Amino acid sequence: MSHPDVAPAAPVPGTGVRHILFPYADEDRFVHGALSFVDSALGAGEAVVVAVSGPRERLLREALTGAGTRDGVSFLDSGELGSNPGRLIPVWQAWIGKVAQEGRPVRAISENRWAGRTGAETAELRYHEWLLNKAFEQSPVWWLLCPFDTGADQEGTLRSLERCHPLVLGDEGPVPGADYAEGPYAFEVLGDPCDPDEELAFSAGALASVRERVTACAARHGLAGDRLRSLLLAATEVAANSIKYAGGGSLRTWAEGSRVVCEFRDGGYIADPMAGRIRPTIDQVGGRGLWLVQQMCDLVQIRTDPRTGTVVRLSMDVDAG
What we know:
The chain is α/β, with parallel strands linked by helices. It has two domains: about 15-175, Protein of unknown function DUF257 (Rossmann fold, 3-Layer(aba) Sandwich), CATH 3.40.50; about 200-315, Heat Shock Protein 90. Helices cover about 35% and strands about 20% of the residues. It contains eight helices and twelve strands. The protein has helices at about 25-45, 55-65, 90-100, 120-135, 155-160, 205-220, 225-245, 290-295; strands spanning about 15-25, 45-50, 75, 105-110, 140-150, 165-170, 175, 200, 250-255, 260-265, 300-305, 310-315. α2 links the parallel β2 and β3. α7 runs antiparallel to α8 (about 290-295). The protein is elongated and about 60 Å long.
């Protein structure tokens, strides 16, 4: 089998991201495909940023050094981005915006960590991959290559990723993904609460009760200090939004594995799929609550429907540093 050529296979549109899934089965294919992508970018005078973790980063750094093409390639520490996929789009927006000010086109390689994640984390990471296409519809054109180790595929992750990527890298270069779905996105159903506390109804004037319930659950399961304060801040924001836009809602809390989970339900509807995933501007009025929540929590799951209302789950890991 020949290695892929990642030079442009079709005319590049004037705006948006060329979002390419790159399935690979061994290290040789990974390195060759990534190097081809980088060489094509540098040859065109484009900036390159790489966000891959652990062994893949070492392999690529060594290959770039050996090929003499390390200059002009920047590396992001993907570990510092955290486990919450809700934080990832602003990172790319900031980097793309910075390079765009320099007048240079951009190519990026980003391999998310799939192995070892919980089912909930994996589901939200897939949604992030789908949202990337929406988030950059009006941006200057750039390329994003997403390697995926097919040997680590679990529960059909590759198939679900094919639905999130307009392009797939084959042996002859990027081709349109036959399974790409523009939308609406098919969310995974949230699992049932695990031994939840009795449901707490809240409305105007009841934010103290919300904080007391979250604190009590956290204390039983060992969540304390700064991480408890972050969860309390996020829970207060979600509850305040429920009161403001839906007149109130309900709260359940429980522990799931090493995480404390808070679930809010109300009759409201969040129409914007990018809510909370775009960094607010300095002069922006409103819209900061969900952004803050994404920054505070290890995982945020939102399910919203105009017919049935909205569910927001906040998760905070007791064991994380």
